[in-house]
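To whoever picks this up:

The parser on our side crashed when reading a file containing two proteins. I've narrowed it down to the boundary between the first structure block and the second sequence. Both blocks are reproduced below exactly, byte for byte. First block:
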Amino acid sequence: MVKKLKTTAASKKAGAPLKGSVKDSAQQIWQAGLGAFNKAQAEGSKAFEALVKEGVSLQRKTQSAAEEKISEATSKMSTMANGISHKASGQWDKLESIFEERVAKALNKLGVPSAKDVAALIERIEELNKSVQKLSAKGAAPKAATKTPAKAAPKRAAKAPAAAPEASAAVAKPARKRAPARKAAVVETAAEAV
């Protein structure tokens, strides 16, 4: 037992310096932690600000890249839309022409003249009107020539017997009737041509 007591006494003596060394170590650890916390706090704000700056630059890069991609996609979509609308308008034009052809065929079967037929008739009528005006102008010139001799004829008829004025009047009347007869003949030939 004596040995035990000696060892306990020795351990007590040794425990006091051990206790002091543990206490000193704990205090040093505590102080190192406080120093690390202070340093982390001081450098942490700097690190935080650096991270914020880096985040802002990354955000700007990301936004510019996204805007580029959006503009590329927009241009591609507009080109595709233009191509599709062009194709659709081409198809619509084809459909419209097919519809017009079928309607024209149906109207032709019913005997309704087409717009081309009507235009051709209008041109022919205009040509006939021009030729009628030319003929009437030519017919008016002979009328004037026949009127002057008719006026001269009554003066001669005054010297001649009474039967002579009737003959000169008969000559003047057919000249008037011939001009309308010519116009009627031209109009009849124009109607036959149409």
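<<boundary where parser fails>>
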Amino acid sequence: MNAADSERAAFELVRGLTVPPRNPRGRREGYTTGACAAAAAGAACLVLEHNARPESFAVRSPLGFDIEIAVNTLAGGHGWARAGVVKDGGDDPDVTHGAEVTATVRRASEPGIHIQGGEGVGVITQPGLELPPGSAAINPIPRRMIRESVGAVLGADHPEPGIEVVVSIPRGGELAKKTLNSRLGIVGGLSILGTTGVVRPMSTASWRASVVQAIDVASANCMRHIVLTTGGRSERFARGLYPALPDMAFVQMGIFTGESLDRCVTCGVSRVTLGGMIGKLAKLAKGQWQTHVAAGEVDVAFLAELALESGATAELVAQVVAANTARHVEDIVKAVVFTSYFDAIVNAVLLRCVERTQGLLDVECLLFDFDGGVLARALEPRREKLP
């Protein structure tokens, strides 16, 4: 038997678990990559310490309840063991859904529980995240959950356990290309995330957290001008206007305009460019900071008021009132070349932003059409405080 054979697992068990397909309209909850890593680490320790073959492992959520997570693969050899868990994101549209998160544990000469990133786990290269550059992208709460799972197996009376835990996501490098990790300075793979252990469908909490994190990273890297956009298309349009700005200066804020502006103020950002299309900006112009469709449709009556205030004819105002959507309003106004109407929208957005930030930011607003053309553009210079 050669050295490779002797180091090979004394056993190898693959259960081949699958996760249910996601339902875009569903409400099925899942669990985070952090919970998966903690379950895998605990299961691997059961193999290492007790030669067990666990079918699942209960992870303690920071919210105070247990999450029972099925174990997909087990392997073990002399002085090491590995367990894998298939990530089930529930009905949340996350790229890690269906990926396997593994933990390999070995006895270590130094006391303590030593957590490292392996294949498919990214490495932090920029300041502004919760961990310093050079660290594996395994966030603090998942690290705590991993330690708790390992400690639960080793027992409180275990004499200073020396255990090395290497967390891996075999397809993580490829999956990371579908995320914004590289823009945050996380290279080579995915992040091990999660603050509660559970994933709720269309989790606005996780979305909001990622936006705030992106602003933190940009600020920590001395970005004083940040471009906030409502999505990928508006970001692409904005990049054409600011080709010299680095990737991390662009943040897709989605529906979280208010929180994004607040964070920019907190981080000491000097200037924000806010870009989007008429649907989202129409809501912001009215002071509706939550711009998700579930929070309500565009108020065409408000858009008609703006048209009236900007000098539109009675006929145009009537057409706007009868419009089906904000895009329909755009088409109507463009047809009569009434450009001052679009100026009114961006100026109303600027007024709301200045009110929100107490004039502590230079705020620029860009209104794009659906082909990337700039319908209106305006800048509100910063003031120390609103009168």
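After patching the parser it read the second block fine. The longest helix spans residues 33-50. The mean pLDDT is 87.
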